[in-house]
Please model this.
Amino acid sequence: MGYGMKRLIYATMSLLIISTGSFSTALENFSVILEPKWKNLEHDHKKSEEFGGKWILVGSITFEKKSKEYVSLDKINLCWNGESIDNLIGSLYKKIPEKEFIPIQDNLISDGNWNKTKQTLILKFDEKLSLGPTTTFYLVLTVPETIESQLKNGSFCIEEQCLPDPFKHCAHNRQLSLAINTTNNLAPPFNPKKTKNFSGDPVNFTTNK
Model:
């Protein structure tokens, strides 16, 4: 093999190593964490009747971004996996860091629309929201007694198509699933090095390769 060919092969291999390393680093900069909660936010029975059901904090969706790259989000589509539901009322709120969550208008990001045919809760934002290093959303559902058991035995999955491009890879290898089964909420603390999705544990979808 000639000297020129050796130099070409060496240069190509070096470029591949650098590119792969840069790609892996880019992937590690973005992750999505889903954590079930199931907390009743309204204990006044009369108000629950007015709302059409219990006001339940179902879980949180956290976007983590180590990169300084500008990334925005304008909707979250949650596909339901479970027994078919005729109608579902849900809202998405932004969690203010280091403050107790209160579902007030100032924190409201979207009132969802339920697509019965696709069994999907569509949470479209009024305007694009810039994602910071850590941005957490809380999903609150109005849960009538007629569907409470259904919800507790199913899960929601974030549609990959609604995610910003830098976060799409989070859904490539595994569904971004929010399991609502409350029987496992006392499971051991989540270990981010493990990617198995046990119902009731937070699920950290990073992209280490």
Q: What stands out?
A: The mean pLDDT is 78. The domain at 31-205 is CATH 2.60.40 (Immunoglobulin-like). The chain is about 20% helix and 35% strand.
